[in-house]
What we know:
mainly alpha
Amino acid sequence: MTGAFPASAPQQRAVPHPSKEHLVLDVMYIVATIALFALVGLVAKGAEKL
Length: 50
């Protein structure tokens, strides 16, 4: 049975260092989550006034 990698190939499982791209994506995710909760809050306030 042959796999995608030969059995003699070393497996590299090192944890990569976080780059600035990952940091930017994390910040964007946090900002988008906060904006989503703010939007839901505004919709709830608007529905409360009906």
